[in-house]
Amino acid sequence: MMIETYRGVVYPYQLDHMGHMNVQWYTEKFDEANWHLFSRAGLGAAYFREHNKGMAAVQQTTKYHAEALAGDLLQCRSGVMDIHEKTLFILHEMYNTETQKLIATTELICAHLDREARHACPFPPDVRAAASALLIEG
Q1: pLDDT tens digit string along 94-133?
Q2: CA 81-87-90 angle, 5° bins
Q3: I need a surface site. Which of 13, 35, 56, 69 has the fewest CB within 10 A?
Q4: Residue 32 and residue 20: Cα distance in Å, rounded?
Q5: How far, CA to CA in Å, does 53 sit from each of 1, 68, 110?
Q6: Do 108 and 55 contact (CB within 8 A), yes or no?
Q7: Is residue 138's pLDDT more than 90?
Q8: What are residue 34's DSSP bridge partners?
Q9: Residue 35: which of 26, 25, 44 has the closest Cα?
Q10: What is the pTM of this model?
Q11: What is the per-residue pLDDT across 10-58, written as a single tens digit (0 to 9) for each?
Q12: Which of 74, 78, 79 is nearest to 101 (CA)?
């Protein structure tokens, strides 16, 4: 299931010398979307604090499909592609809100971390269940 995880605008200060949104801002907007998806999967700030856990992006692949220009309204839709014992495979899609044109996609592999032991650890059953509800059909 894909859910909305981000809404925002492209500001002039986010443009590069070619007049479109610089790649660093795609990453920032996808990162914000990621935290909303984590929260829906039971991996919110309270969970991380209470259990001394964290998440780490171990791989990210971004594809750029169209330019984003100053003033464009953006929306991200996100879902879980797969769940392993200690990792989530995530897809984010960024659209121009007004035209619904696909702007960019990013795929991430994120590891669940025990911050004290400093290594990846299994997801608890309730998180696996919540993340499973976000699996993309198909």
Answers
A1: 999 999 999 999 999 999 999 999 999 999 999 999 999 9
A2: 30
A3: 13
A4: 20
A5: 25, 35, 13
A6: no
A7: no
A8: none
A9: 44
A10: 0.95
A11: 999 999 999 999 999 999 999 999 999 999 999 999 999 999 999 999 9
A12: 74
Domains, the chain, with CATH or none = 3-132 (3.10.129.10)
Q: Is the pLDDT of residue 137 over 90?
A: no
Tokens describing residue 62 = 């971004």
In the chain, which residue ranges form alpha helices assigned H by DSSP? 23-40, 45-51, 125-132
Give the residue ranges of DSSP H helices in 5-138.
Answer: 23-40, 45-51, 125-132
Instruction: Please enumerate in sequence order all residues whose Cβ is within 8 A of that of 96, keeping only pairs 6 or more positions apart, or say none.
Output: 66, 68, 72, 73, 74, 103
Tokens 């990210």 belong to residue: 60
Phi, psi of 48 (to 5 degrees): -60, -40
Beta carbons within 8 Å of 2's beta carbon, 6+ residues apart? 77, 78, 79, 91, 93, 136
